[in-house]
Amino acid sequence: MSVSNTHVSARTIETFRRFNRLYTRLLGLFNRKLLDGPLSLAEARALYEIVAAPGVSAADLSHVLGMDRGQLSRLLNRLIKDGLIERHGEPGGRKVLPLHPTAEGRALLAELEAAADKHAATLFGPMGARENERLRVTLQQLETMLAGAGPQSAARDQGSGVTIRESRPGDLGWIITRHAEYYHREHGFDAEFEKYVLLSLAEYVKKDPAGSRVWIAEHDGAPAGSVGIVQLEGNRAQMRWLLVEGHARGLGVGRLLVEQALTFCRERGYDRVLLWTLEMLHPARALYASFGFTIAETGECLMGGQEMVEECWTLDLRPEGDQPSENNDALVFLTGRGHGHID
């Protein structure tokens, strides 16, 4: 067997393909319907992306899924016919029509997620706690190693139009506006949330710029996302204001922003990074976990006029030999309850 890339061994390819055969069998991907539900794998994945990024366009969804536009159009029409998603606006013309999940679509996805969790628990149940942890770490490493191999990564490397820059005058106002609009539209937050974001940014501008920073992601020259780092006491930093616009979902914008923020923290020599987020923000939580953040504290809070469960996630940046002893209080670094310190 010959391979065009001399650094890729035949054994690596053979092992990878063998793993794929095992993976597809274990997950039942050859079955017509996923997990004995009403949707195919492609339909379930499209519904997942629409629920995760309400307002996404068919063009952006095609890019995220790596699916032919014609095939995706037929798939979306089936989901619309079944009452799982809806397209806002009338077809025709050149206007981009956003896709949104219906209540039925959200409920069905929740059922599929629960079934997938149960299926995974059944697969991994025979393993002990140590083997489960080894599996988790291995899968995380595999995800990181393969993240640069797919078509989305190639697009980022070869002209996707995504750039990360430091904030300029006017950007803080954009962050306030987009946070307020997005969380009001998608989660029903009231005006108190806009006030909260405004006040948090007002505190940021008082910080030493050497230790605190805000970045803006741009896609084809337009703002597509934001993130910030705020210096805290005790050689710690807080990551805040992570947001990705719907039209930029699937381009890796969130990952690029978090990478930029953590690179800044490492260059400044911070020992630890923390962030506050909400239990309901599943895509953001998955992103944080992929970077090694773990939950250190949870509690109830009032956010945007609603009762929520907030979480503090932390990441230790110290060299391995500099890690604290197990006798140290794991939460000694916290500044107290978050009271709505959303990311």
From TrEMBL:
Record-linked InterPro entries: Acyl_CoA_acyltransferase (IPR016181), GNAT_dom (IPR000182), HTH_MarR-typ (IPR000835), NAT_camello-type (IPR050769), WH-like_DNA-bd_sf (IPR036388), WH_DNA-bd_sf (IPR036390)
Keywords of this entry: Transferase
Keyword Transferase: yes
Gene3D superfamilies (UniProt xref): 3.40.630.30, Winged helix-like DNA-binding domain superfamily/Winged helix DNA-binding domain
Residue span, HTH marR-type domain: 12-144
Domain N-acetyltransferase: 162-316
Entry protein name: MarR family transcriptional regulator
